[in-house]
Design a protein that fits this description.
6-stranded mixed β-sheet, 12 strands, Deoxyribonuclease I, Chain A, about 260 residues, alpha+beta
């Protein structure tokens, strides 16, 4: 938890919540105690997970699992009772894959979003580009209704060369394609800001590493996990960090601390 007057938000693609729990995710959670934890790629339904640990630590938990077993899915853990939890977007193909969940607290909303990967081929890349258009429209409509948004998640895109270990060789790879990066440019110039880059400007900060070629040990990674804030919350950002030492997944947690009131 933050000190008084602060809210600590964590976003974590756990690449299977059951696997992450077996690797010590609960120990990390007890130590870090985020006020809000946004999880992606949980790959499970709530009934398949022993949630007693979350409840013991004082968390309420909300789930949006994919229809396909062992695939995708998001969840949200919170120390505070939300005024409202909204599961999904109302967009059928997105909701079938369990990609969005939102919790409202007063005038703020926190979202956990898992953006598709396009790395498996042209068909999924096309789905990803469609998703970017649709989720962008969805977030802009939501922002008009609820201006104070925190959008957490695995975006599956590196925004700038500073966010990837080898921007030259990866220039034609899904996750760093010009059209994906152009979407990020628009997103971060029309109502949202990159919470991490509001605080940290140095290179070599990554949130995902391939399992191949000892990439994590050599810090040859990608920063594809974000804590984005809508413009009215920019002045509330206190701190931001990435925790590569947390090794429950091929991703690691990204942390944002905000003033408790806007």
């Amino acid at each position: 938890m933050c000190t008084f007057g602060c809210v600590k938000i964590a976003s974590y693609n756990v690449n299977g919540i059951r696997s992450a729990l077996s690797k010590g995710l609960g120990i990390w959670l007890e130590r870090e105690q985020p006020d809000v934890l946004c999880l992606q790629e949980i790959k499970a339904e709530q009934s398949q997970v022993d949630t007693a640990l979350f409840e013991h630590l004082g968390y309420r938990h909300f789930w949006h699992s994919a229809e396909k077993k062992g695939y995708s899915g998001v969840a949200l853990l919170t120390r505070f009772e939300p005024a409202r939890v909204v599961v999904g977007t109302g967009i059928d193909y997105i909701d079938r894959e369990g990609r969005v969940i939102r919790a409202d607290y007063g005038d703020r909303s926190y979202l956990s979003i898992y953006f598709p990967s396009g790395s498996s081929g042209d068909e999924r890349q096309a789905v990803k580009m469609r998703f970017l258009d649709d989720i962008g429209d969805f977030l802009n409509r939501l922002r008009a209704e609820r201006p104070h948004l925190v959008v957490c998640g695995d975006f599956n895109i590196c925004h700038r060369p500073i966010d990837i270990h080898d921007p030259v060789r990866n220039a034609t790879v899904s996750g760093f394609l010009p059209e994906e990066r152009a979407w990020m440019d628009r997103f971060f110039s029309t109502g949202f800001a990159d919470g991490f880059r509001l605080v940290v400007q140095e290179p070599h900060h990554y949130s995902w590493w391939t399992f191949r070629a000892n990439a994590r040990a050599n810090n040859k990674g990608w920063r594809i996990d974000y804590t984005a804030v809508s413009d009215p919350l920019v002045s509330s950002v206190r701190a931001a960090s990435i925790q590569p030492q947390a090794v429950h997944s091929d991703h690691c947690p990204v942390i944002l601390e905000l003033n408790a009131s806007s």
